[in-house]
Write the structure tokens for this entry.
Amino acid sequence: MIITKIKYALGYIKRIKKLPVGIKVVAIAKEKLFRSNPLHPSLRLHELHGKFRGLWSISLTVGYRIIFERQNNGEILFISIGKHDIYKHL
């Protein structure tokens, strides 16, 4: 997977602002790692299934995830961030 650019959906921006500071720090570090090595094992990258087909997830911690969509020419759209219940808000 080659990443040319990461974009942020409005919902992602709103949700990240509400996260605890420690999780924001982790999110920044994991995004940096994702940019440089999207297949790094600690990201636990996986494609979602069912009604979320076409979306992907990376893990920040045991309880927090980033949900994103792969777009054309290597662009990534971060859609949401939060605890595992973020799937309810997609």
Summary: Residues 21-36 form the longest helix (16 residues).
